């Protein structure tokens, strides 16, 4: 189910796969860290062009910049107000990942970022055969641990709590591109009652219920 740039349709598509509170919480905790770490990795890609760094910050206009800019522009086009908040978060993630990458360097960036969050999986990896593989650098092991934890957490949220396969399996491009914004939009709705416009929440809720009903009927027919 594609949604183009229709915010109601897009958010309803996302909401139909994220209705259980635990699954929603897991995504709220995992989605933006995945985005941040992607920018941290992209920090080490070659620059598209060279410009003076504002405020002396070690900003590089490379894939990380392009990645953050693309997301920010799409989010603002979907909803100027919430999209501006999301664009600010994208900018902060880009700046923060750039500073972290420049200070620590490639070999330490991923490890320092996730040592505290991923202490248990990192220790597990270090105690297994991964550590003895000469062709797998330590930084790669930590990157894999970070991504594994975040992605596995989301799949667990869907499999155990949601009881439905993630949207990623049906529309991977939309799921990856829209997830950070929809996590933020959901937080804004639940905490502040935010709506992009009056009636948005009711319209999305109706679309979600209709989609989930169709999914349940389809599931019953196939079983």
TrEMBL record:
Oxidoreductase keyword on record: no
Q: What are the protein's UniProt keywords?
A: Membrane, Transmembrane, Transmembrane helix
Q: Which GO terms describe its biological process?
A: sphingoid catabolic process
For the keyword Nucleus, the answer is no
| Record-annotated membrane-spanning stretches | 24-44, 56-78, 84-110
The UniProt entry, under Pfam families, shows:
Mpo1-like
Provide one Gene Ontology cellular component.
membrane
Which InterPro entries does the entry mention?
Answer: Mpo1-like
Q: What is this protein called?
A: Putative endoplasmic reticulum membrane protein C16E8.02
